[in-house]
Design goal:
Chain lengths: 189, 203
């Protein structure tokens, strides 16, 4: 899913580690959209997601010595952004809600532009996703949006394989129940 | 076609995802409705670089030093590179002092010594330092008056060596370091300050 040249990341990490600020800048630019999207899907709030992305990259710049290669960088970014989002969710669970201002109910479903249609559908599903308890939302996103394997999820979340599978299963069941309007819209299989 | 390729992704992991959930996953892969600011990366690097104002000796790693220099390069002000004659009446300079810090780092290539350039100039709007270590480019290392008390400082990573340097106030007034132990004629009728940086290992 990730069309990322890990050799470039590895070189940028090396340069940034040696003190090349331009390399650090490029490294952030290469991954900022992905980290921001992950944070947004986990929190449903654009401002919060931007803060999480910023904190994630600030931590990255302070911990470059722990990044061994490009693939390790991706795992590190995903784990850190997920952890920060979870910490924020725990501390602000009473106030963090889906950013309604970004969702336009009047958006019709007769959309011709694929990108716009995809974005709109993402927001409709995001609304359903926000109904899930955070741990199940997290499980669905990491597995089916970020494409992590079960084993990667175990490592990232610090959970056993059975717990990870249960969470994914329950997340799917809950989200499916929250999206009845998409019955029949699914791809032909 | 896109749907088919996405379905390939959804099923290649050995899990037959419910069509509705496959659709949901695809929708969630779309970008958020609000994009990050275009200068997001620059802001992050700038914020990381701000920590160079509060260095903690050996804990300050190579990245932060480099980020500070990169920021100085990126946001350099427009300043003249030709050195004019000295004009002391332009701004009051109470004292100038430069200190070579004892902390240093052993990098892969060369030892780096942190040098703190410092000047007390309450009326100045900007202070920078230039020397043969940065091709006499006065726009690259800008001192900061972090406390607003007129004490301008910059911490600069430098390799051991002998360097000539001067300060530039408000982009106009070149000032030698009166506390410099050595000076050298600059060829413009003035004298440059001379700095000898010796790594701890050679002391």
């Amino acid at each position: 899913m990730h069309d990322i040249d890990f050799s470039i990341d590895r070189r940028l990490v090396e340069l940034a580690r040696e003190g090349d600020g331009g390399a650090a800048h490029e490294l952030i630019e290469r991954h900022q959209e992905r980290v921001y999207r992950l944070a947004y899907r986990l929190t449903g709030q654009a401002d919060t997601a931007a803060d999480i992305a910023q904190d994630t990259f600030l931590r990255l710049l302070q911990n470059l010595a722990s990044i061994n290669d490009g693939q390790a960088l991706i795992r590190w970014l995903t784990r850190t952004a997920t952890n920060i989002a979870r910490d924020r969710w725990r501390s602000r669970r009473d106030t963090v809600e889906f950013d309604e201002a970004l969702y336009d109910d009047d958006m019709a479903r007769d959309i011709t532009d694929d990108a716009a249609a995809s974005a709109q559908m993402g927001e409709r599903i995001q609304r359903g996703l926000m109904e899930l308890p955070h741990r199940y939302r997290e499980a669905f996103i990491l597995r089916h949006v970020e494409d992590l394997t079960h084993e990667e999820m175990c490592a990232q979340l610090g959970l056993s394989l059975s717990v990870v599978k249960v969470r994914i299963h329950r997340a799917c069941r809950m989200l499916r129940a929250l999206l009845p309007e998409y019955e029949g819209d699914g791809p032909d299989v | 076609m896109d749907r088919m390729s996405d379905m390939d992704q959804d099923t290649r992991r050995g899990e037959e995802l419910d069509p509705v959930l496959a659709l949901a996953a695809r929708g969630l892969r779309a970008s958020p409705p609000t994009a990050l600011p275009t200068d997001f990366a620059a802001r992050v690097v700038q914020r990381a670089g701000a920590q160079i104002e509060r260095p903690t000796g050996r804990q300050l790693d190579g990245l932060l030093r480099g980020v500070g220099q990169w920021l100085a390069d990126r946001f350099r002000p427009q300043t003249q590179r030709v050195r004019p004659a000295l004009q002391w009446a332009w701004v009051a300079v109470f004292s100038v002092a430069t200190a070579v810090l004892t902390s240093h780092w052993n990098g892969d290539d060369a030892e780096v010594v942190m040098v703190r350039f410092s000047m007390i100039a309450p009326m100045a709007r900007s202070v920078s330092v230039a020397g043969d270590f940065n091709d006499w480019d006065a726009g690259r290392i800008n001192l900061q008056d972090a406390r607003g008390d007129g004490r301008w400082q910059a911490l600069v990573p430098m390799e051991p060596g002998v360097y000539q340097y001067m300060f530039l106030i408000d982009g106009k007034l070149w000032v030698a370091d009166p506390q410099a132990v050595e000076r050298l004629d600059d060829g413009f009728g003035q004298q440059n300050s001379l700095m000898r940086i010796v790594a701890d290992d050679f002391l």
